[in-house]
Amino acid sequence: MDEQILHNVNQKLDRMIEQGRDLIDEEALKQQIENGSSQLRDQIRRYPVASVVAGLAAGFLFARIFRKG
Full-prediction pTM beyond 0.90? Predict the structure, then answer.
């Protein structure tokens, strides 16, 4: 009986630890995305013409690659 209770408690603790790790990983990923987004916005503000040209070039390439026929 006591072993079963300890086993259940250990399982619950393991699940809680795993959920905590997942939460930390999600927060780290969110922070990296926010940092990358901020850097991209800064680059676009610093070089607006080059950003538009790069966007047009990327759109042209995607259109050429995925064009049907």
Answer: no
